[in-house]
Amino acid sequence: MPSLARKIIVCAAVDGLILQPLSSKKDQRPSSLVRIKYGDGSVSSVSKDAAPDTSAPNSFFEAFGIVGLVTVFNYSYLISITRRQQVAQIRGLPIYVVTEVALTPCSSQKDASEAIAKTAAALTARANDQAADDEDSGDDTAPESRNSGDDAVDEATDLEETDTSAKPTSSSATRTSIAEDVISRRGSYGRFAQRWFSKAGWTQDQKRNMGLSPEQSIVDSDESGDGKETAGAVPKKIPIPEEAAGSEAARALLPRLLRSTQILFGTSRTFYYSYDYDITRNLASGRTPATALAPLHNQVDQKYFWNRHIMQPFIDAGADSLALPLMQGFVGQRSFVVDGHPPQTDEGGSKGGQESSVEMSDFASSRPGSTPASPPPERVTTTGGDETLRPSEKRFDITIISRRSTLRAGLRYLRRGIDEQGNVANAVESEQILSVSPTDGAFDTKDKVYSFVQIRGSFPLFFTQSPYSLKPTPMMQHSPDANFAALKKHFDALRKQYGQLQIVNLVEKHGVESTIGVQYEKNIDRLNEDAEYKDDKVAFEWFDFHSVCRGMKFENVSFLLQTLGPKLESFGYTVVVDSDSIQTRQKGVLRTNCMDCLDRTNVCQSSFAKYMLDLQLKDQGFDMSLQRDQENSWFNTLWADNGDAISKQYASTGAMKGDYTRTRKRNYRGALTDAGLSLTRLFNGMFNDFFLQTTIDFLLGNVTDLVFEEFEANMMTKDPAVSMQNMRQQAIDLCQKRVVADEAEEFHGGWTFLSPTTPDTVRSASLEEVVLLLTDAALYLCRFDWNLDKVSSFERVDLAHVQKIKFGTYITSTISAAQVDEMRNVGMVIEYKPGSTDVTRVNTRSLSSMSETPKAQGPTGIAGFLSRSRPGAAAAATVAPPRKIALKALHSQTSAADPAAKRGKDEPGAVTRLTEIQQVVVIAAEIERLAIHNQPRLAGTNAEDAKLIEKGDIISLAEAKKNTSVLEQLGHSIKKFVWA
Fold first, then answer.
1. What distance in Å separates the CA atoms of residue 262 and residue 255, rounded to the nearest whole number?
2. Where along the chain is composition biased (Acidic residues) (predicted)?
């Protein structure tokens, strides 16, 4: 395997940014160089002779790795890791968390040199400060020397030290008031309020817009109070070449994108890596040894490779030594000591450095019985006071690795449920690893390593929830068959990866959550009916957490353990010996979920993990129910940190119920803290999450640069995992089956357009996406319920009644640049004279408010489905004025990444897209041809007289500007101020 560079020298040259990898931590000799050309961000290898002179002060800086290249149109920025922190060791191999990154512009040598100089100066200043006062033990000045077994290893997550409710404290510890704790430190809404009263509040909000710690902040050179600048800080004015391509929206949002990128990869402390150990695979997967010939980026599990897209230029260039995979999630490690023969007397105090206690563990009641231990030998202590272990004692490391999937990545309420491929939101694999602590820093390959894996994920159903409520009702989407097909894909993939499955559903059996819980259970029953073998069936356990644990009695989770204990033991765990030899393999996995898969899930998963830890230690001769330390604070704190980390990544706050996970106790203070977190989550869902979701989708390669135009227009983006092309084609097919009643009609085509929600007009308050069907006899305008996959209503127009088709500029809003582009905002208006064969029908099954008696007129064959005609259609045919059908073309190019669209025109599978005006002209011409065929008065006349099409503005830009109200402009400005 090509050796990953431990350090990389980043410097600027005349002809491109130069990266000089240092091949290993022991051998610091330079390896091959890589050049990033200015302007286009392309990467190519160069010889060592091309290395620039780095003797000038601040002409270069050293990075611990490369995250990738962020490219918006032709603005490219190199992301380098400038600070890291060791958080664990697995088999003697260190694992790091990224704590700071630098963004270096690649647009020109001047911009790159200035950014590199600032980064180098900041790193030098920090090094000098540390030499004078070594306060920050987390700074990685010598990361390889850190001992994973040391309790001083810093936490991997960004926990706030002032949050006393989230950590066990002594009675003498200083406590902040609840109001201060919730509003000033915990709540984004508190920071939002500060912006109106304090200039400093703007800086605080900028650095905390994802629920991050105030200590891990970006300090802009023009905004910091002390004039200092952190390494890699994004300047207030980001250099953007005037001649650079790209939309105004991309230019305007680029600074926000870069700041979000720097916070996401750097100061959020949620991205982990290892030079030697594949942290993306659990031990049961039989990982490939790190010494294999394949590069690490080819060995890792791609669904946990978060910087794959922005690292692709280096991979394509063959720069494998720079391709450092990052995983988002959590890595934490704690050490603890157990005694094979612990004393069983309560001595009323501490003994041998451990607290003595007769209190049994919360889980002891569910553990197998044990025999009394014989008196242990006396503890031996060195003269320096350092404790040594008795022969009956052993020190272990417990490590948690949680891996967040990239396949449906995002934030709460913006990424819910499942997609068409069976990927669910907030999918996390959590692995608990038990290993013997290294002796003198050396790992003994003969020691057993234990692994227990469990997973979490959103409901594998199509549903949404509004972000504007504390407890929103889940709204089901799409048909039952579509939901079952996606759910089946999901569980087929889980069975293939993990074996047997046990679902733990923690939502309420009554109330707003029950609806989706019932649908979940019904789909699992249907899935099990189709199962060919017994082991293929998915076990389903519905545990109403809120009902059973009502009154803050979270210890009642032990009831769930009593139920699932035998299943847990049957699944077992993985045991690895001799480094990579799997002795036993875990046979199944628990899939736990609540509504968000955060708070209730954290409590239960920690309980399952403790149950299995006790089994693993018992396998080595240690009975946890007999230990003097029954508090297990090392275990509770580690799992609470894990829960906080996952919660921050999905809901932008720490986990609720964290006080119980840490202390196994629940009181009013924890309940009040949870109330503050609920308000924080509500605020983030309403204001902060929209652009951050856009950033995540862009960095993962799910969307293209056009996403910024969409965001500027709507202040939010669509779910890129949803194939709108497939949805629209399915809607066209469904509409054809439902509304074209006469089998004699020949179907000529179907399309989707935007149309005013108010019929017979070209301008209304909003537009909706409709389906237009064309047969040889009629036009059908179908209004479609995209959530339920049903036809809401349709309007049939006989082609013999079409009088005119007008196409041209159709601008309905002027609040963004994309909406005033006259070449992209086009449409057509079809005028027709109503006749007896023209009808409008509404699906009464989808409208519970309909009270009129269905009428029998109109086409037959769909009476049971579409049953209400437009009143007086026949009578109005001779007296009513012409009616209009206004249709606006959808944009031919969207932000969703389309692999086929990236192919060359001559390559197989290449997609040739018509422009918006081409679409309108082609469809209008087809309608005209068939309309003339159905009108004898026009048949046989000359071409000019038979023409129905005319070109002209439907709504011109000038008219649209005139009709745009001040209130509409003000509303969009406020939305842009808040969200962008």
1. 11
2. 131-142, 151-163
Tell me which H or E stretch contains 709. helix 707-714
Tokens of 180: 């201060």
> Is there a domain that residue 628 lies in?
yes
In this prediction, residues 679-691 reach a mean pLDDT of 57
Strand pairing class (539-542; 500-505)? parallel
Domain boundary among the residues 635, 651, 666 is at 666
102 backbone dihedrals φ, ψ, rounded to 5°: -115, 140
Match 């190199």 to its residue by tokens. Answer: 78
Distance CA 867, CA 444 (A): 76
C-alpha span between 229 and 221 (Å, rounded): 6
Instruction: Supply φ then ψ for residue 313, to 5 degrees.
Output: -55, -40
Q: How far apart are CA 698 and CA 573, in angstroms?
A: 38
Give domain status of residue 555, yes or no: yes
Q: At what angle do helices 248-262 and 689-699 cross, to 10 degrees?
A: 90
Kind plus residue range of the DSSP H or E element containing 327: strand 327-339
First-to-final CA distance of the chain: 43
Rounded percentage of the chain residues whose pLDDT exceeds 90: 36
Q: How far apart are CA 174 and CA 162, in angstroms?
A: 9
Q: Which residue has the tokens 């044990």?
A: 370
Residues 413 and 318 in one domain: no
How confident is the model at residue 771, as a pLDDT?
95
pLDDT at 163: 35
Quick one: DSSP state of residue 141? S
* Residue tagged 């005609």 (tokens): 869
The average pLDDT across 940-955 equals 77
CA–CA separation, 754 vs 214, rounded Å?
Answer: 45
**What secondary structure letter does DSSP report for 752?**
E
Residue 500 and residue 471 share a domain: yes
**SS3 category, 452:** strand
- Residue span of the structural domain in which 814 resides: 724-899+908-979
* 481, 498: one domain: yes
756-759-763-765 Cα dihedral, nearest 10 degrees: -60
Which tokens go with 279? Answer: 């942290």
267-298: burial string, b at 16+ Cβ within 10 Å, e else: bbbbbbbbbbbbbbbbbbbebbebeeeebbbe
Taking the C-alpha atoms of residue 244 and residue 233, their distance in angstroms, rounded to an integer, is 23
pLDDT at 167 over 70: no
Are 731 and 786 contacting, i.e. CB atoms less than 8 angstroms apart? Answer: yes
Largest CA distance in the chain: 114
Number of domains in the chain: 3
Residue the block writes with tokens 């309560």: 346
Question: Which residues, other chains included, contact 834 with Cβ-Cβ below 8 Å and sequence gap of 6+?
Answer: 801, 873, 876, 877, 880, 882, 883
pTM, 2 dp? 0.75
Task: Tell me the pLDDT tens digit for each residue of 371-415.
Answer: 344 444 444 333 333 467 778 888 999 999 999 999 999 888 888
Strand partners, 810: 955
Structural contact between residues 257 and 72, judged by C-beta atoms closer than 8 angstroms: yes
Q: Output the six-digit token pair for 648.
A: 């921050």
DSSP-derived pairing of the beta strands 949-951 and 33-36: unpaired
Q: In terms of domains, do 406 and 506 share one?
A: yes
Residues 6+ apart with CB under 8 A from 669: 165, 178, 659
> In whole angstroms, what is the distance from residue 293 CA to residue 316 CA?
18
Q: Which of 629, 644, 666 is the last residue of a domain?
A: 666
The count of other CB atoms within 10 Å of the CB of residue 797 is 24
471/618 same-domain check: yes
Mean pLDDT of 72-99: 91
129 vs 777, residue with greater confidence = 777
The verdict on 752 and 614 lying in the same domain is no
266 in the same domain as 337: no
Q: Which residues partner with 575 through β-bridges?
A: 450, 584
